[in-house]
Design brief:
two-stranded antiparallel ribbon, 21 helices, binds flavin-adenine dinucleotide, 7-stranded mixed β-sheet, single chain, alpha+beta
Length: 598
């Protein structure tokens, strides 16, 4: 298993030099969060993730979870890690101080999350689902529910889940059948079967707070008839003491391709006691608070696992000796050169580096927008809201697709030694695969981006991002060192706009056109965003080099990686553009029956 080392130099470069988090915090009401607070948080997060969490990743995969007497048993190492997380209060970092949180900006919590996903992604889902549930309860529950449940969730004494999926209702939640009957005391009795529920049971805490989607009697059909309920695993009395178990039973946990230590349960709710969160029939909107946050969390899962695979591949490529470099021996004293000298291995390592560091920059930029969207005011908040809405499906879809690609390249760098279990590279491929499926498959993210965010806003959300990109390009087009990289970002942004207009316009005549292009459009959008991110990083690196600031070797590598990205990764947009504009005809040519012909 690669030994995870938090990429603190890269993180600090983004936080201090490219994105200037201290100035951003000052502008959004967190002037107290300066470099003197940020740096110790980053270092402590790195220590926790490297020393406490990372050593449990392999054990989780090997031990897995199992059921004893109807309850899920987790690996022993997980208990210590959860205890350490609770003691260090990592879950409280960006929660509301009214309920015991530290009230720090959301983006700072996201950086912890970035590292934690690399250290142990299946374990981390317990943490992120709890954070998502806290946010949904904070935003939509009444005061009594907040006071009763939030303090123990914020402290990590209780965890949270998200119960949406049913066997016949996955992407289409409007089909769900779980029902909620009102009781005389103002609570509800909830009955139904949920499937695929992550961390729906565990032996790490003494209560689990489930957020469940269900339908009230007489609810309208489809998504508009869904309500959200808080259902505790163990009942809590008015003094906060635990009572009897609620009627929430784990029927089984699934055997899976990866994520072996993250229990995925089939749950029977048999008249379980629950309370309405938010308004009746408004559950999907309320759950979207959790789902949007969970979508960004899943984006960071893709990024975190990509970082881990990248680290493993680089270490191995430096050690593994095979053949000589094309231009002759680079290490003549050794029996062969390390594989890092071979152009094809460098292609893989640089692709990993360009994708991981580019996605990290875009992820951190999005997290900053979330700070303003959540706590800002007026025009600034409105703009940040637009950017988060647009960037959420792009980050979720693009980071997880690239996460799979980077993890796959990691195995390839190891050759046969990547395919066997010994080095842990195959575990990363298995674990990252789910990120393209849950929290809405990437096909659904693409539809969300195209239909709701781009066409639905009449391009306004994209205009908000392009204004940001163009203002950077206008200011840096003539940059002495990185001007050509800025021009590449500017060109792809202009093409992105033109393509969008073509798809919107074409969609007015034939609605199938934009939908047939949706997945390629999401991919294209990701590459265009990364071009802007790499141009920004290159300009900062070049300016720092010119000013004699920072670590010259690190900064030069940034510049060179930016050049690699523009020359060898960004051209993927060309083929995406051609596919997008090919139109829907080739997709609809075959009849359904023709797929079945042998
Ligand atoms: C390990 C794991 C953990 C999970 N954790 C949770 C959890 O904690 N809570 C929870 O509620 N759920 C959870 N899920 C469920 C997950 O969110 C769903 O599996 C996912 O949303 C897809 O639903 P589905 O599996 O029913 O696929 P389907 O919706 O049946 O989709 C099948 C295929 O059809 C495509 N498709 C469907 N509709 C359209 C359309 N309109 N246009 C284009 N393509 C379409 C999809 O993209 C997909 O490729 C988990 C699943 C797994 C495997």
């Amino acid at each position: 298993m690669p030994q995870y080392k938090a990429p603190l130099r890269d993180i600090r470069f983004l936080v201090h030099n490219v994105l200037d988090f201290p100035a951003h915090y000052s502008a959004c009401g967190h002037a107290e969060v300066g470099a003197d607070l940020i740096d110790p948080v980053l270092e402590e997060a790195a220590r926790f993730c490297e020393n406490v969490l990372a050593p449990t990743y392999r054990d989780g995969d090997e031990t897995g979870t199992h059921m004893v007497n109807g309850r899920v048993v987790t690996p022993d190492s997980y208990k210590g890690a959860w205890q350490a997380l609770t003691e260090a209060q990592w879950g409280a970092i960006s929660c509301d101080p009214t309920f015991g949180g530290q009230g720090l900006p959301h983006s700072l919590g996201m950086i912890f999350h970035d590292m934690a996903e690399s250290a142990n992604q299946p374990w981390c889902a317990l943490f992120t689902l709890t954070q998502g549930a806290i946010r949904a309860i904070e935003a939509h529950a009444d005061d009594a529910l907040k006071e009763k449940y939030l303090p123990k969730m914020v402290s990590g004494e209780w965890t949270g889940t998200m119960m949406l999926t049913e066997s016949h209702a996955g992407s289409d939640l409007g089909l769900l059948r779980t029902r909620a009957e009102p009781a005389e005391d103002g609570s509800y009795r909830i009955t139904g079967e949920k499937i695929f529920i992550t961390w729906s049971d565990q032996d790490l805490t003494d209560n689990i707070i489930h957020l469940v989607l269900a339908k009230l009697p007489g609810a309208p059909a489809g998504p508009k008839g869904i309500s959200l309920f808080l259902v505790p695993q163990v009942m809590v009395d008015d003094n906060g003491d635990l009572g009897a178990r609620n009627s929430v039973q784990v029927a089984k946990i699934e055997e899976k391709m990866g994520l072996k230590s993250s229990p995925t349960g089939v749950i029977n709710l048999d008249g379980a006691v629950g309370w309405l969160v938010g308004k009746p029939h408004n559950g999907l909107a309320a759950m979207f608070t959790m789902m949007n946050s969970a979508r960004l969390d899943v984006a960071f899962e893709g990024l975190g696992l990509a970082e881990l695979s990248r680290q493993g591949a680089v270490e191995y490529a430096r050690e593994r000796l095979q053949m000589r470099a094309p231009s002759g021996a680079v290490y003549p004293d050794k029996s062969a050169d390390p594989i890092i000298v071979h152009p094809d291995v460098r292609r893989m390592l640089l692709t990993q580096k360009a994708l991981v560091e580019g996605c990290r920059m875009l992820g951190y930029f999005t997290a900053m927008q979330l700070d303003v969207a959540l706590h800002g005011e007026g025009e600034a908040q409105q703009k940040a809201d637009q950017l988060v809405a647009l960037l959420t499906p792009i980050c979720k879809g693009f980071f997880t697709e690239r996460g799979s690609e980077v993890a796959d390249l990691g195995v390839q760098c190891f050759g046969g030694h990547g395919y066997i279990r010994e080095h842990g590279m195959e575990q990363i491929v298995r674990d990252v695969r789910i990120t393209r499926i849950y929290e809405g498959t990437n096909g659904i993210q693409a539809i969300d981006l195209m239909r709701r965010k781009v066409i639905g806003s009449d391009r306004r959300l994209l205009d908000a991002l392009l204004a940001e990109i163009n203002s950077f390009c206008n200011a840096n087009r003539k940059h002495a060192v990185a001007g050509d990289l800025v021009a590449a970002a500017e060109n792809v942004a202009a093409e992105w706009l033109a393509l969008t207009d073509k798809l919107i316009e074409g969609g007015r005549l034939d609605p199938a056109l934009p939908m047939s292009a949706a997945f390629e459009y999401l991919e294209y959008s990701g590459y265009a965003c990364l071009a802007w991110c790499w141009a920004r990083m290159a300009v900062t690196a070049a300016d720092m080099l010119a000013g004699g600031q920072g670590d010259a070797v690190f900064l030069q590598a940034k510049l060179d990686t930016a050049r690699f990205y523009m020359a060898r990764v960004l051209p993927r947009t060309e083929s995406l553009k051609i596919s997008m504009l090919a139109g829907p005809e080739t997709l609809s040519a075959l009849t359904d029956e023709q797929f079945f012909m042998a």
